[in-house]
């Protein structure tokens, strides 16, 4: 960027007027070339090993859009969404309980979080699955009565196991978010005559969301992967379908790769969604937000009216 | 405009402790309707705490505190006091505007949304009308062109003026100012004081905790010097500031003037 201001009038303004630009020989980094070569060689050998291995790669495209796989994908997504809904609603409830002045409710919330966060989710899933050993029937009076084993479908087991476990984690995330909002905010709101509920809903929670959303996005992505555990309680998610196909078609490992590819696709899409949700809740927090990738592409294509940064 | 009228705020032996620390040790004072009442004193003297007691952000431990003739935070029946419900406290706070040292604007709302929030949420005003009114108020504090800005896009002085407009939107009969210019750069203080001066001229009853002695002298109708949780000296601001009687007042004023 050495623009010569004084001599731009002539078309051949070659001799620079300012001090001569430094032309030094840069420091060499031979170590970087060596480490790059080693890393590439290791990567290559791993790829070679897989290519040489006894894996029938053609089986993956054959089954990629198989009906059973697509069903499994939908079931995995459904389970992720429903479990997260249970987790978020339960988490908000538990967070408010923990922050309440009532010692009974706050202790119950503490105990819940202690228990569900302290035991493995796989163990919890099996406990729900086998609760028929404790309760032979489920009896809700005149509303509903059935054998526990037929009441506790794989979907319900999976939802309870994952959702209730998630609520414990979401509770801590929500609590941190609520505590992150400056006390002056609720004071100002109360001073205006707003009630506790209105203060929470209109003033505190929208600001807490900025702290709550990023870890919640992580939780969603985590949940999507954790749903693979529910194949253990016979729920037909992506992993179970892939496993079943693999065992019948004699291509076990291939189907694991296929499942991994589907999980990667889904988590990648979720990451993009998370990016935009975070932007929404960051409004008002900084003078201007960096442009989104889409806006950057537009800016590059249409250089004439390039935005200087999108105002919040 | 400032007819000698009934007391807007009346304190009788107000005590307040935080744990073992006694912050207010028996405050007696009276703020008349239409008056600009200034509270000065060293930090830690309890003046901000007293201000926060007036709209029940802090609960007093002893004494009686009245706003517009009614007890703050309690209802008296016979010789028994009953605590007010949260909703009843909120109802009383509608009539008392408060401006904070740290502005406390809602950062996720634009200036105009900050101002219209309480009229819409608390008084149930129609959004369109509330927005019009909010714009008028912003124009009144000299920020008619900043309605769409978020607080982070405003200077400290502008934020404080939005905060004043936000408090005025509830049509309060009493305004409390808690060191409104202490967090501002010196060159921004004047704009905020100008707005407060206009407000005083319009007849608003104002209780102002401040370190701006010039403002107290020019605009104030009464002044109280507090130290260590008690009222040391009170009277006309011009008298107290130019001719303090008590040695603690003299020592304080010699440092700040």
Structural description of this entry:
- The complex is a heterodimer of chains A (312) and B (257).
- With 312 residues, chain A is mostly helical.
- Chain A has a single domain, classed as Orthogonal Bundle (MetI-like fold), CATH 1.10.3720.
- Chain A is built from 12 helices and 4 strands; from the N terminus they run αααααββααααααβαβ.
- Chain A has helices spanning 30-52, 59-64, 67-99, 103-118, 121-129, 148-151, 154-180, 183-191, 196-226, 238-249, 252-281, 293-301, and strands at 137-139, 145-147, 288-289, 310-311.
- In chain A, the strands form 2 sheets. A two-stranded antiparallel sheet of chain A has the order 1-2.
- In chain A, β1 and β2 (145-147) form a beta hairpin.
- The relative contact order of chain A is 0.11.
- The model of chain A is unreliable at 1-5 and 305-312 (pLDDT under 50).
- By secondary structure, chain B is an alpha/beta fold.
- Chain B contains 9 helices and 12 strands.
- Chain B has helices spanning 47-54, 86-93, 111-121, 127-140, 156-168, 186-201, 213-219, 237-242, 247-256; strands at 7-18, 21-32, 36-40, 62-67, 70-71, 74-77, 80-83, 96-99, 174-178, 205-209, 222-227, 230-235.
- Chain B has a 6-stranded mixed sheet, sandwiched between helices. A 4-stranded antiparallel sheet of chain B has the order 2-1-4-5, with helices on one face.
- In chain B, a hairpin with a 2-residue loop joins β4 (62-67) and β5.
- The radius of gyration of chain B is 18 Å and the shape is globular.
- The model of chain B has no long low-confidence stretch (mean pLDDT 94).
- Chains A and B meet through α8 and α9 of A and α2, β8, α3 and α5 of B.
- Chain A: One of its GO terms (cellular component) is ATP-binding cassette (ABC) transporter complex.
- Chain A: Its main location: membrane.
- Chain A: The chain crosses the membrane at residues 33-53, 73-96, 108-127, 147-165, 255-277.
């Amino acid at each position: 960027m050495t623009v010569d201001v004084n001599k731009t009038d002539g078309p051949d303004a070659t001799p620079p007027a300012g001090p001569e630009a430094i032309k030094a020989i840069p420091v060499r980094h031979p170590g970087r070339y060596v480490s790059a070569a080693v890393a590439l060689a290791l990567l290559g050998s791993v790829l070679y090993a897989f290519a040489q291995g006894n894996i029938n790669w053609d089986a993956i495209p054959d089954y990629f859009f198989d009906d059973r796989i697509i069903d499994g994908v939908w079931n995995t997504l459904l389970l992720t969404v429903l479990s997260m809904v249970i987790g978020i609603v339960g988490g908000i409830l538990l967070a408010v309980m923990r922050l309440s002045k009532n010692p009974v409710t706050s202790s119950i919330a503490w105990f819940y979080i202690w228990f569900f966060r302290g035991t493995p989710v796989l163990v919890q899933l099996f406990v729900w699955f086998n609760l028929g050993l404790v309760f032979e029937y489920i009896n809700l009076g005149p509303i509903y009565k059935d054998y526990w084993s037929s009441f506790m479908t794989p979907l319900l087991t999976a939802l309870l196991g994952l959702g209730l476990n998630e609520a414990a984690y979401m509770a801590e995330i929500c609590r941190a978010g609520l505590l992150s909002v400056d006390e002056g905010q609720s004071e100002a709101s109360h001073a205006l005559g707003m009630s506790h509920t209105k203060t929470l809903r209109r003033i505190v929670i929208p600001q807490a969301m900025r702290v709550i959303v990023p870890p919640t996005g992580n939780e969603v992505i985590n949940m999507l992967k954790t749903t693979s555990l529910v194949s253990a309680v016979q729920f037909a998610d992506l992993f179970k379908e892939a496993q079943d196909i693999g065992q019948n078609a004699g291509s076990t490992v291939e189907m694991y790769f296929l499942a991994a590819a589907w999980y990667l696709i889904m988590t990648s899409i979720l990451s993009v969604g998370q990016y935009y949700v975070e932007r929404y809740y960051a409004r008002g927090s900084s003078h201007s937000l960096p442009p989104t990738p889409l806006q950057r592409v537009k800016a590059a294509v249409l250089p004439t009216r390039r935005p200087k940064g999108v105002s919040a | 405009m400032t007819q000698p009228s009934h007391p807007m705020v009346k304190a009788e032996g107000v005590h307040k402790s935080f744990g073992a620390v006694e912050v207010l040790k028996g405050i007696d004072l009276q703020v008349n309707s239409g008056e600009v009442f200034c509270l000065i004193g060293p930090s830690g003297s309890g003046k901000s705490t007293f201000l926060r007691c007036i709209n029940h952000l802090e609960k007093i431990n002893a004494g009686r505190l009245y706003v517009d003739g009614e007890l703050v935070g309690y209802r008296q029946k016979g010789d028994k006091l009953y605590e007010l419900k949260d909703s009843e406290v909120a109802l009383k706070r509608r009539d008392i505007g408060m401006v904070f040292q740290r502005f406390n604007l809602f950062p996720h709302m634009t200036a105009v949304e900050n101002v219209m929030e309480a009229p819409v949420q608390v008084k149930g005003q129609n959004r369109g009308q509330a927005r019009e009114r909010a714009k008028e108020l912003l124009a009144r504090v000299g920020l008619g062109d900043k309605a769409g800005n978020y607080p982070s896009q405003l200077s400290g002085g502008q934020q404080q003026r939005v905060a004043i407009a936000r408090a005025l939107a509830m049509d309060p009969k009493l305004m409390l100012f808690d060191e409104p210019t202490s967090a501002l750069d010196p060159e921004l203080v004047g704009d905020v004081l100008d707005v407060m001066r206009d407000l005083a001229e319009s007849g608003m009853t104002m209780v102002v905790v401040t370190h701006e002695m010039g403002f107290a002298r020019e605009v104030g109708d009464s002044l109280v010097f507090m130290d260590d949780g008690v009222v040391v000296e009170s009277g006309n601001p011009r008298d107290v500031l130019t001719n303090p009687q008590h040695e603690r007042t003299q020592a304080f004023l010699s440092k700040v003037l």
